[in-house]
Specification:
The protein is mainly alpha-helical and about 280 residues long. Helices cover about 75% and strands about 0% of the residues.
């Protein structure tokens, strides 16, 4: 119980830090904004603490299957921190923010080619956006996108090299997939594989669909709205993180389906051997 309590408190603190990072790095944040961020951070921390301290699962998936959620958190933190450093370079002469900005501009330029997700992300801007505003969106989109791809590659590497999830302990589907109902109907393996394919397909398409939906649905964001630092940071973070999170979830669910299939084959082989012996 003490270990679970300490782990939940640590995770809650890390989530609170994540939410507060832009306000801590960006200069010129008003008092009202800081108070709102503090309120959101406390709410997110309380929700995380309640989720990880509870005996029974709630909404967080893969709670007992590290390092799945750790990689997702590290991805979020890396994107938010990097974009915050890039945004702070506009009003700072420090070397570190300037370095982040220079690298981010190069990445955004390299990924801005026809039909790329970064090019499509710039379409979320309404007509009349200035070149500086378009550059800010392209830089943030390229940086967030490349960081999400690095995180996905790292997860696949862990998946292949270490055989996620670990084989030293049983994998509890109910605890790690609390929103998945195994008894809802149909074979659980078929449903897991179907959900895995759906998550993979949506993860691939989402980076392209979000800009199109925003562009056609609202005729684009107002330039001053999207290029305000905090809005730009969280918008680009969500745009880059949601697809990679779905891809990771699809890979994980496919792996679980494969594990269940292997376990069934193993049990059937044992039952067959016992029956033959008798």
């Amino acid at each position: 119980m003490v270990t679970r309590l300490a782990g939940a408190a640590t995770r809650a603190f890390l989530v609170m830090v994540l939410v507060a990072v832009p306000s801590a790095i960006l200069p010129g944040i008003g008092t009202d904004t800081k108070q709102m961020v503090a309120l959101v951070a406390l709410f997110a921390a309380a929700l995380t603490f309640a989720e990880y301290n509870a005996t029974f699962p709630g909404l967080v998936e893969f709670r007992d299957a590290p390092p799945f959620n750790r990689i997702r958190y590290a991805t979020l933190f890396a994107i938010v921190f990097t974009l915050s450093m890039v945004a702070s370079a506009k009003t700072s002469d420090a070397a570190l923010p300037r370095l982040f900005e220079a690298l981010a501009v190069l990445i955004g330029h390299a990924l801005d080619f026809p039909y790329s997700p970064v090019r499509l992300a710039t379409l979320m801007m309404a007509e009349g956006a200035s070149p500086e505003q378009m550059l800010a969106v392209r830089t943030a989109a390229g940086t967030a996108y490349i960081l999400s791809l690095i995180a996905l590659a790292f997860f696949v590497l862990i998946f292949k090299l270490h055989g996620w999830p670990g084989r030293h302990q049983a994998f509890n589907v109910w605890v790690n997939l609390p929103t998945f109902e195994p008894t809802a109907g149909g074979d659980v393996v078929d449903r897991l594989e179907r959900d895995a394919r759906a998550n993979l397909a949506l993860g691939v398409l989402l980076s392209f669909l979000i800009p199109a939906v925003v562009s056609f649905g609202s005729m684009g964001f107002r330039p001053l709205t999207l290029t305000s630092p905090q809005t730009l940071i969280w918008t680009m973070t969500a745009w880059a993180f949601l697809p990679v999170s779905l891809l990771m979830r699809g890979i994980a669910m496919g792996r679980i389906a494969s594990m269940i299939r292997e376990k069934r084959a193993h049990n059937e082989a044992i039952s067959g051997a016992v029956a033959a012996a008798h």
